[in-house]
Structure formats: structure tokens, C-alpha cells
Amino acid sequence: MIEAVGLTKRYGAKTAVHNLSFQVRPGTVTGFLGPNGSGKSTTMRMILGLDVPSAGHVTIGGLPYRRLPNAPRKVGALLDAKAVHGGRTARKHLLALAQHAGIPARRVDEVLGVVGLQEVANKRAKGFSLGMGQRLGIAAALLGDPEVLLFDEPVNGLDPEGILWVRNLMKSLAAEGRTVFVSSHLMSEMALTAEHLIVIGRGQLMADMSVKDFIAANSAGFARVRTPDGEAEGREKLTAALVEAGGQVLPEQDGALRVTGLPLPRISDVAHAADVRLWELSPHQASLEEAYMRMTQGAVDYRSTADPRAALQPPAPAPWQQPLAAAPPDWPESSYPVLPGERPNPYAQPPAAPPQAPPAPPAPQAAPTTAPADLTKRDSEDAR
Ligand SMILES: Nc1ncnc2c1ncn2[C@@H]1O[C@H](COP(=O)(O)OP(=O)(O)OP(=O)(O)O)[C@@H](O)[C@H]1O
């Protein structure tokens, strides 16, 4: 089991992860979701001892990664598929990792077979496609036959067949009783792969629930109602009548109305009684992707000026669906905005005293399977 308690990471003035507490249990795939820049990779790096938390802690089976005996055989990770020496063949890359972790060389061919790279095992990694690179990274993660597996965006660059393969692999690893923690920013993919979800936005926990509960809470139906174009008066009249009848009405971008709280026949009766003609009255189901986008819409760092999210308006958001208050530029611990209706943190600890000195940079000892090249990934990186 992975357990994070009050996990916080600051890079100078930037808070990448704030007071994150969660558990990742064995035997199921746990999806780790969040928009770009929400802190998923930073959290994974802290789990793997590659980044030192500014506050809080995270353990695997009760111990921090660095104190795990024989860590590379207990924990496997895919963090950055490009973290491969391009001049090495796939087999040599895996052999080097196996040697470093005391893993028998015969395991290399086993994992090459599992990920379907036997044919290209003697080809240099620099000639690999993105998808082949992902497969090689997954092979590296599986090398030590570990109980705990972390995958950061494992389906990046994979074709539909590859995506299906990863999905089935994750599930079968979990079915063997392993702890499988998979990050993604694709809700639709996670809904098919994971049983449990941890959703973060701007480094904060936004949801920690089973996929089943997430679906139950977010896939409420609604009706789309459209009055004839150019008859604004009819639209307003209908809106007022529907609200009076107990419905919730939200305008959609194309001029239609999104109505919740009233069954379709009732909407039809209300329109008839109000003497408003309808061009459309259709049942709809809010998609999980949409629910996720709504949940995280206030926590998106990077957004296109043409982002359709601007048009998404939550009907009656649950407390955890409330958008985050705008984060102050420096996100100091003491003035961190509290989420409206923030759920009590079951692992909450009293706030730690401010650090006297900046935390020492990590001194890598036992690195995860993908670590050798990955260790350099953030060294000179300031902000992406
Ligand atoms: N070494 C660093 N120095 C400064 N800021 C950093 C560093 N690493 C990460 N950050 C910042 O912390 C925030 C979280 O980044 P992180 O990479 O963890 O997010 P993410 O959820 O994995 O994003 P993505 O989905 O895009 O990979 C971002 O704003 C990023 O710019």
C-alpha cells in the first residue's frame, strides 16, 4: 500500500502539491487524475524518493522509498519513457537496469516478451517510436516483478491496440494482488482501467472515491430543450415556467436549455401549458469526462482561449465539485485558500513549523527501475 499524509512540495515560490493525503491499496488499479500541471508527476516522484517533500510524508508498505530494503524489486515505475540512453538497444538498456538492481538477466527476455518488444530487442532505443518507448518503459517497471507499480501517463503515444493492451496489463497486475497507481489526464481512459480514483487539481485533493461512486455521483441525466431559433421570448417564458415547476435550467452555448430535476413528459406539459413550441426535447447523460472537466475547471493552469470548458456550468455542484479559489501567486501555507465545503482530511496533521532551511536535495541511493536517466529530468527544470 502507498500512503501519503499531508504531502506538500514547494519549488521556491511555486507550490506543486499541497497537503495531499490518500491511500493506494493493493489488488485494484487506482487512477491518479488531474489536469496538466496539477502535481501528478511531482507526487509520483515523491513516492519514489526522487523529490523530497517540503512537508508531510509518503510511504510504501509503511516505509519511505529510500528505506525500503531492495526497493527496485519491490517498486517498479514508469515516469518518463524518454529516460533511455538512445545509443543502447532495448535489451542492453534492460540488462543495465537489471544488473544495477541485482535482477537475473533472464528476466530481461521475459519482460521483453510481456511488452511485445522481442523482435526489436536488439535495436537502438533512439530509433523507437513513442509507443515503443512506452513499452520499453513498462518493461523496465516490470523488471523486478514488483508488488507496487507506478505508471505516469503509460498510454501516451500508444495506438488503440496499445492502449487496450496497457489497460489489460494494469488490470491483470492488480488482479495478481499488486498495488497499481496510474496517472492520466484522461477520465474516459481511467474510467475503463481503474476501480478507484484520486483526482487532484492544483496539487490539492479533489476526489478520492471508487469509479462506481464517481459514476453514480456524476452521470445524472438531463434534458436538452430547444425552442425555435429567433424566438427569444418563448425561450425566456419556458425557462421561467420550468423553474416554477421545480426544474433547474442552464443555457447551453447553442441556445438550447439544459434542464434537470424534471422528467421529459413533465417538461413537455410545462411547455404546452406555457404555449411555447419546442424544436427539441431529448434525454442526455452527462459524460464522465464532462463531470471530471467540470470538477477540475477551476484548477486548470493551461487553457486554450477556445476551451469548451468555459461553457460548462455545473447545475448544483457537490462541495468537492466547487472550483478552486484562485491560488495566490506564492501559495504560502498559511494563506492557502480553503476549498468551500472542503472535506475533512482523515490523515490531517497539525501544520508543520516552517522549515528553517530549504530541504536538502535528494541524494539518490536505491533508485526505481527507470531512475538512472530520470534523475536528471527535473534537475535543471524550473517550471514547465
Ligand atoms: N523542478 C521544478 N521546479 C519548479 N516547478 C516545478 C518543478 N517540477 C514541477 N513544477 C511545477 O509544479 C507543478 C506540477 O507539475 P507536475 O509535473 O507535477 O504536474 P502534472 O500533473 O504531472 O502535469 P502533466 O500532466 O502536465 O504532466 C507545475 O506547475 C510545474 O510547473
Q: Evaluate the radius of gyration.
A: 24 Å
Overall SS class: alpha/beta
CATH architecture of the largest domain: 3-Layer(aba) Sandwich
CATH superfamily of the largest domain: P-loop containing nucleotide triphosphate hydrolases
The sequence of SSEs as H and E is EEEHEHEHHHEHEHEEHEHEEHEHH
Strand order of the largest sheet: 5-6-7-3-8-9
Annotation field: number of helices: 12
The CATH topology name of the largest domain reads: Rossmann fold
Name of the level-1 CATH class of the largest domain: Alpha Beta
Q: What hetero molecules are bound to the protein chains?
A: adenosine-5'-triphosphate
The tally of domains stands at 2
CA-based shape: elongated
* Terminus-to-terminus distance: 30 Å
Report the mean per-residue pLDDT as an integer.
Answer: 80
| % residues in beta strands | 15-25%
Q: Uncertain regions: pLDDT < 50 for 5+ in a row?
A: 307-384
Main beta sheet: strand number and arrangement?
A: 6 strands, mixed
Query: Helicity level, as a percent range?
Result: 25-40%
The tally of strands reads 13
